[in-house]
Amino acid sequence: MKLEGKAAFAPETLALVCFELLLLLAGMWVETHKVFTGLQRILDSSGVLITDYMDVGGVGAALVNAAITGLIGVAILCFLGIRPAGIHVAAIMTMTGFALFGKNPLNVTPIILGGLLNATASRKPLKDVVVTTLFATSLAPAITHIVHDVGLGWHVGILVGVMVGFIIPSIASSLYHCHNGTNLYNVGFAAGILGAVVYAIIVRWFGKHNHVPRWSTEWSTHLGISVTLLFAAVTLLGAVMIGRQNLKKYIMILKSSGKAPCDFVQVAGWPATLLNIGLVGTVGCIYVFLTGGPFNGPTIGGLFTMAGFAAFGKHPRNIIPIMFGVFLGCKLFGISPNEPGPILAALFGTALAPIAGLFGPVAGILAGILHVAVVLNVGGVHGGLNLYNNGFAAGLVATIFWGVWPLLAEVACTAYRGLTMLVGGDVLE
């Protein structure tokens, strides 16, 4: 399969490569003498949710691991001759972000192979399954959990990974109709269900293995400043590229509901998308600062994922109601918003952005409240084997909203019309 020059040297591809190389160089610069030993510790860990690789192997090793994992995804796109659209940008940024807490080159590769086998068996072009396959690496910890915690060895872990990659595209395709694009993390929804089955089998045969969460705070200030400056630079670059004359293209993004499929690269162009990526990432950073949360592997992974989906559905107008709803839900339920679960719920819960875009900010706030309640109680179902736990929870919430909200809205409108007529009649009498 020949590499198409226009795909390899497209601005979107070059931007992704530059992003990964920036992480690679930053990681090597921060902890040059500790990177390789840190990488070894990362590769030897299970990666079960939550495993902050910055705590496991150090900041430098975590950044290098994220860069290498992300470059694997970019290399696959280039090999297939794909010029990245919005969904591809989201997939690469998500892979990179989660390689800060759960993914690594060893545990994502078998799943990718399984996805390619799925395309071969179903006689589909590889291009048609590559996106789902990259997202399916959410179940990467299932492999390393089997290898390092259960002790069955790499041959079993690889076999399970290939099977997961082979199965999940079909599950994801079926589940999409449950929420009809109102959950941007559809593969996370599918991975939660498949992960629950895998985890149930492991527990039944080999018993439960208790996981101690890893959550670092040591480098929070430095990381917070660095990531915020990164998104500010992206925002500035996008603003310069788009100029005043093409500002209408960004307004097109802001007017979008975000319901998948919603590809901003194709709809508004790369400069407008780049501006949106910077702004969405900045909004996420502001939330972390305001709530007093730490900047570490998981939270930066959340920020990178938010930024990636700013090319495919998210923008400031439809994510802010969700984030505010999560914050409000924390207050209502007596939970500190800067604890690991809640702060990740606010960042990753923006998967529900299309609900705010379709049904309005009130629906978005309610979805955020419901999301934080659900996400903090569903992780045990898959035992942390599904890194996209928020995608799983968002799928449940979105399914409920897609089915119930239009009915509630109609009931409210009918009641309002009846009340108006009643009040009007009283006035006439």
Question: Main attributes?
Answer:
429 residues; mainly alpha; 2 domains; 21 helices; 75% helix; disordered N terminus
Broad structural category: mainly alpha
Shape: globular
* Main beta-sheet strand count, sense and barrel state: none
Number of domains: 2
Question: How does the SSE layout of this entry go?
Answer:
Elements: H1 5-8, H2 11-30, H3 35-43, H4 53-56, H5 59-79, H6 86-98, H7 105-121, H8 126-135, H9 140-150, H10 154-179, H11 186-206, H12 220-242, H13 247-255, H14 264-268, H15 270-291, H16 297-308, H17 316-333, H18 340-348, H19 353-359, H20 361-382, H21 389-428
Helix pairs in contact: 2-5, 3-5, 5-6, 6-8, 6-16, 7-8, 7-10, 9-10, 10-11, 11-21, 12-15, 13-15, 15-16, 15-17, 16-18, 17-18, 17-19, 17-20, 18-20, 19-20, 20-21
In short:
The protein has 429 residues and is mainly alpha-helical.
Protein model, in words:
This protein is mostly helical and 429 residues long. It has two domains: 5-175, no CATH class; 220-412, no CATH class. Helix content is 75%, strand content 0%. It has helices spanning 5-8, 11-30, 35-43, 53-56, 59-79, 86-98, 105-121, 126-135, 140-150, 154-179, 186-206, 220-242, 247-255, 264-268, 270-291, 297-308, 316-333, 340-348, 353-359, 361-382, 389-428. Helix 7 (105-121) packs across helix 10 and helix 20 packs antiparallel against helix 21 (389-428). It is globular and about 75 Å long. Residues 1-5 have low confidence and may be disordered.
